[in-house]
Amino acid sequence: MEITGLKKQVFDFKQRETDTLVYFFAPWCSVCHLSIDNLEAVHNDQNTTQIIAIALDYQSETEVRDFIAQHELSFPVYLGNEEVKQKFKISAYPSYYVVTNQAEVRSKVAGYTTELGILLRL
């Protein structure tokens, strides 16, 4: 499965050398606003796992860009759609998935997660 980022870059889960931590969020989600800084801190502190975010249930690309700017995110953010949401069976925000380079879900959790909680899943 491929998804397109805000900078029109394409992400293919099967063309990765390492696992990828995928953060599914919605820009209107208050828990996402509270937890995204923990993910940014993990991204800044370690370089072994790829981290990306996928926006779902957004009204416009501008809404997603505002979320990115508000939290000064340094990892790639992609625009998801209903197909992505259904494939990963996203039912709550935020959702954290660790996906292998063979596009298999190794672990997942939903809701607020601390930096330590994120690191323990990697």
UniProtKB/TrEMBL annotation:
InterPro entries, alphabetized? Thioredoxin-like_fold, Thioredoxin-like_sf, Thioredoxin_ResA/DsbE_sf
Q: Which SUPFAM superfamilies match?
A: Thioredoxin-like
- Identify this protein by name: Thioredoxin-like fold domain-containing protein
Identify the species of origin. Catenovulum maritimum
Highest taxon, organism lineage = Bacteria
At the highest ranks, the source species' classification is: Bacteria, Pseudomonadati, Pseudomonadota, Gammaproteobacteria, Alteromonadales
Q: Which residues form the Thioredoxin-like fold domain?
A: 20-105
